[in-house]
Amino acid sequence: MSEIEEFYRGMTPDGSGRLIEEVWQMSHAELERTHDYIQWLFPTWVRSKFVPDAPVLDLEIREAFLNDEELRSRLLLSLDLMLKFFGLERRDEVIRRSPEFDDLRDHWLTVGNHNQLRLTRIMLSLWTLGFEPVVQSLHQCLRVIALEYRNRVAEETLAHWDDAARVG
CB-based burial of residue 62 (10 Å sphere; 0-12 exposed, 13-18 middle, 19+ buried)? Predict the structure, then answer.
């Protein structure tokens, strides 16, 4: 079993010694100031330049997430944690603003904010692990927000979001 699978099953900690359940319990302030958990929650094919020891996806891990309902539901718990952080929420495969959006938007909705990179990673990981409809909905929600809050999301970020959602 891969390190990512063991982490997702709560059997092994991440590189900082946290079990996934501990990450899921982090406050918004902890999620903001901690920078080494997102690579574990949302792994991609590419090694992180910020957390180079974080594991990366391979075909075996991808297959495990595509075919194991427990892994899939735990990945959605990670998504829900991060959506809440951004002031968003998920209803099945539909992503929309939550009632807390207005209170939470300013900590990520600024040009060059590192949380916008986190959104790219989340979409890339979810797409790869078989959650295309969720990614499409998140992308659409983010595009509407970016249109409403002009000049708070750089064109380069929008392009990354489009690439992550396979748009265009």
Answer: middle
Confidence band, pLDDT 50/70/90 cuts, at residue 168: low
Tell me the backbone φ, ψ of residue 110, rounded to 5 degrees: -140, 145
List beta partners, residue 12: none
pTM for the predicted model, two decimal places: 0.96
User: What is the DSSP secondary-structure string of the chain?
Assistant: --HHHHHHTTSS--TTS--HHHHHT--HHHHHH--SSHHHHS--SSPPSSSTTS----HHHHHHHHH-HHHHHHHHHHHHHHHHHHTEEEETTEEEE-TTHHHHGGGT-STT-HHHHHHHHHHHHHHHTT-HHHHHHHHHHHHHHHHHTTTSS-HHHHHHHHHHTT--
- The Cα–Cα gap between 99 and 18 comes to 30
Domain assignments of the chain as residue spans, ordered by start: 3-164
CA–CA separation, 136 and 82 (whole Å): 16
Give CA–CA dist 6/114, Å, rounded.
Answer: 27
Total residues found in the chain within this entry: 168
Say if residue 167's pLDDT is above 90.
no
